[in-house]
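Subject: Interface between my chains keeps coming out wrong

I've been trying for a while to get a sensible model of this assembly. When I model each chain on its own everything looks fine, but I need the whole thing in one frame so I can look at the contacts. Pasting all components below, labels as-is. Any help appreciated, I'm running out of ideas.
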Amino acid sequence: MFFASDNWAGAHPAINERLLKESTRFAAAYGTSELDRAIEQRFNEIFEREVAVFFVATGTAANSLALASLAKPGGVTFAHSEAHVIEDECGAPDFFSGMRMSPVPGALGKMDPKQLRSRIARYPQDAVHHGRATAITMTQATEVGSIYSLTEIEEIAGIAKEHGLPLHMDGARFANALVQLGATPAEMTWKRGVDVLSFGGTKNGCWCAEAIVFFDPEMARELPFIRKRSAQLFSKSRFIAAQFEAYLQDNLWLDLARHANAMADRLRAGLEASNSARLAWPTASNEVFAVIPKSTAQAAEAGGAKFYDWLEPHDMPEPVAEHDLLIRLVTSFATEPQDVDAFLDVIAAG
Amino acid sequence: MFFASDNWAGAHPAINERLLKESTRFAAAYGTSELDRAIEQRFNEIFEREVAVFFVATGTAANSLALASLAKPGGVTFAHSEAHVIEDECGAPDFFSGMRMSPVPGALGKMDPKQLRSRIARYPQDAVHHGRATAITMTQATEVGSIYSLTEIEEIAGIAKEHGLPLHMDGARFANALVQLGATPAEMTWKRGVDVLSFGGTKNGCWCAEAIVFFDPEMARELPFIRKRSAQLFSKSRFIAAQFEAYLQDNLWLDLARHANAMADRLRAGLEASNSARLAWPTASNEVFAVIPKSTAQAAEAGGAKFYDWLEPHDMPEPVAEHDLLIRLVTSFATEPQDVDAFLDVIAAG
Amino acid sequence: MFFASDNWAGAHPAINERLLKESTRFAAAYGTSELDRAIEQRFNEIFEREVAVFFVATGTAANSLALASLAKPGGVTFAHSEAHVIEDECGAPDFFSGMRMSPVPGALGKMDPKQLRSRIARYPQDAVHHGRATAITMTQATEVGSIYSLTEIEEIAGIAKEHGLPLHMDGARFANALVQLGATPAEMTWKRGVDVLSFGGTKNGCWCAEAIVFFDPEMARELPFIRKRSAQLFSKSRFIAAQFEAYLQDNLWLDLARHANAMADRLRAGLEASNSARLAWPTASNEVFAVIPKSTAQAAEAGGAKFYDWLEPHDMPEPVAEHDLLIRLVTSFATEPQDVDAFLDVIAAG
Amino acid sequence: MFFASDNWAGAHPAINERLLKESTRFAAAYGTSELDRAIEQRFNEIFEREVAVFFVATGTAANSLALASLAKPGGVTFAHSEAHVIEDECGAPDFFSGMRMSPVPGALGKMDPKQLRSRIARYPQDAVHHGRATAITMTQATEVGSIYSLTEIEEIAGIAKEHGLPLHMDGARFANALVQLGATPAEMTWKRGVDVLSFGGTKNGCWCAEAIVFFDPEMARELPFIRKRSAQLFSKSRFIAAQFEAYLQDNLWLDLARHANAMADRLRAGLEASNSARLAWPTASNEVFAVIPKSTAQAAEAGGAKFYDWLEPHDMPEPVAEHDLLIRLVTSFATEPQDVDAFLDVIAAG
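Reply #2:
Try treating it as a single job with all components included. I did that and got this:
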């Protein structure tokens, strides 16, 4: 009953197998091996165009270095107020990019386009005192389990283009959003106006595989130096490449995401049907937020269930009662139906 | 015949096996799992005292974050002029620590104590204009294959203590130096005055396992925040822990280093006996520098041998002739005797 | 009719005279002259305790370097959402301190204590992911012309102490607030819990005189290096000292602030009595915010009046009508009663 | 007998007078006044082309922000090993630019072209590990009183252009070099290949007037934001402009520099004729380095003379004997012939 986070899971057997194979070979270091090259080519295919790809160690690194590559002195980047880059990365995006992250409100973890426009308007391009609007970053799927529709992405991208701002997408849970929308990687990114993507594999079956993807390779010009100076260039880079090779082969990544999402569906259905719990707000993807009695939460934890309390957001549809608790439940490629059912049983038992 | 670098090797089977086992489990993320805790305990045993241990993604990160934890505004860190932190990390140590790296000359990659004193004297503690001496970093084994003796470490440490400066050791090839000296980890570090260590596992059989070790845990107070802000906190941190578990078990790490060094001995012996090559300078550990005819180098490469040219150092004992080439040969846990012999045959064939 | 800002004024004759005298002498550079020492002693007297004083070039520098001296990796500083450090310094405080500025709401430019507590609670001391609460900065007088009472300062300081956070005060208009409260410098700062002060002289009659004042000199330990590395150590530092000497002599600074405030009183009284204008919100000190018809504003500008439009704040008591304009009027030591009256006449004329 | 530094002098009466006049006016802040504009135009005339000019507080700021505007991630800037940017600015250039300063040897404070080439060769444009050559900075007049001839400037600039590197000139003593060479400002800068200049007025009669001058305004695109974020945008900027106005009027600046140099000539002549002192090395401009008996130095100091000891450079033509002292003597616009003669008398008296 591990629902604390999708990064509590291990790694998928196919990925392990590929790593094993890689471990018995010699190959060039620092991202220059043939395998590194081959995986870069694989990203071109996946995204249906020539892209520039850079492996890094963590999702925080992917976001921070992507933003660093878009940075200008006095720059301001806009992100949802509850975005990972603002609330969960200890200031790393600010540190690496030298920019400030400006919080944009919006329901269900998605930036409100009107609010976004209003924030951008405070930072015009000649605003030496205020600082200047320089980039926008959006999270897909969001921190609270929602997903921007393709039209919503297009709307944010439209605002970005209108102001001449590059658009970054934090795709720590990219695959979960993708299969939910039934879109292609291209459709959910550059075809809708995304310029740079943090492409996460770690939460979805790899043990450490994060990539920055530039849809215009020219924008990546400084990244090799930014990455090395940021201590993010792996010597045995091909072990990241190997994970991605297995991950992307025969649509494994999409299957894993579909499984995680299906497990979340099962959870949602069970909680909706439950008398002792309710969904805090509607989610898609592999995150579920529920309100359960504190006593039930204790019982669940005593029974071995793992999950995190969650801070009530500003736009909480229905407040959490004193004796209740808001919790987050995350499923992954490794979640088994019986885990879900066991958890629902514990909840039902109250 | 892979002698380009020890990071061209793969990963040792025992480490792979341990990773496989880890991949099928769920566990807490971000370095809080029981395995993470257990490995920290293991480091205590290895170093015979309570230490503070932090995993990071690369050797550059280990060096940079270690120095960042010792930093002061206007600080100057002293390192050998050919040190990795100065010549091979794209300024990452400066970037993360905000300090400048001040080059100290010395023969065979080791800081000359007299030169070190003279450099420190330029940066007294009240030198607002020049900047102030703040830390010393030494590399063991050095970039050019030499090793500081325990007495030499003690001498550098003595200078550090005398000036109130913390001493960092870049141990990317720590194990290779350790087995060469026949010392214990404690003897080669804190017992001789080292305060912080970059403990490298990647070059010696792991695929990605680097740790910062503080011998006074109080000095590590800021490191958790420095690491997270530096985007170096792995979500699936326990996969680093797992590598270290296997690496440190039953002295595997020492055996691997002994093997690599033995392969280097075999290379050295063969080159010394050769008519068509000479050792550029004496080395210990797993790095060998040789001078060979350019034509021989071409023949070797045509035969599949991998190695790098090397820039002639200032203190080159005997200059490289026009028709010759200075090359670096690095052995690893994965080097086979027949690879060495094959290479020596190619050299002999000219 | 110069009401655009108090930094549009020139310099007071007494300060000019002192600068003239200084210009004919030789003296030691970089803040080491006898005059520099004497002024530091003067600050001790003014603040009734031993303080550490550092001259810098701008108010932004004073704020940024003060915060840099309080910084920790992953640190978060709390400031009012409309504070100068957040909205008007192009990210300089973040740049120099490496901290993020977290906006705290509150009416009339003053942090709401409850909101402040709630923000701090999001960043506990072990919050590696979120970052940790590290400092609080308050502005006295505020950006919108209000003043924290001594009790209000004490309340903010109480929250700071409770959480172990140092408290900085941005005193760009320190004197204006001081004379308004009728307090002593000590009473408005360290006696109420302020730890570090940006003491501004430029807006009140100097042409360039800003100081950082530490009430616990021990907290200033790193400042000499921070200042030099920040390119803020004047070679002819004594010309700042000279300005402060004249500024602080015979309470000139308080007289100048009283004059500026009196001119603002005159403005306020005139606007309150006016049929064609209203005060946007109550202010003390030398800033007045008024709502006037757009046509009147144009007429005033045509007549030579200088002032700035102002962005409507969230807590605007009564919204600005379509045909009206919110403007800021700032008086200074150099404002003459006839300027105020002329302006009021223009407004009255509509 | 003030020979400690040219920044021990006060300010020239013409500059004081202009400041007085400025102090009685109101004018727009933050560099937007008509006077600011007029002075920018004045710089165009002085340099015979359209330039972009930015005032800052200190010479360190001018150098640091100029380099920041040229910076790239992983960038390396080349400077003479004894350059101010390396030895006397507490790491500010590294801090603001994020680049490392790479020391280039050379006799008499001037970069040796061959050594410069050799350093640049270590940092090619694709050298992710080493970092990449990004800028060159030269000092005119140098730290040790020498001056690059126009041909020598052209040679350095040639190397810069050849490698596609922008060339910065630290002109803290620009005027002293200019009058010595009898060149025009254009000839000593952009006509010989200089791209950016730190134009210093403080050491030559202003009390605080430093400017960054870009000969290609397009290169200055980011500077307004860099300057504000660096806390270097004066609110009463026009007081810097006013100093420059007086400084540049009727060639005052050149007259002042000629005077300072003439005083240095008088010193040099006296020391050369002296039995109890010798010139340490040949200098031009307003700096003189002498070797005198320690006892004489003590007597001079007892007699009220002010000067600094100097660290013996690597290329010291003739070593300093045990009982001797190497000292630096700097003259300025305010040095009087009788001060020089009095000092020479003290030296002669031994």
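Reply #3:
Confirming on my end. The longest helix of chain C spans residues 252-273.
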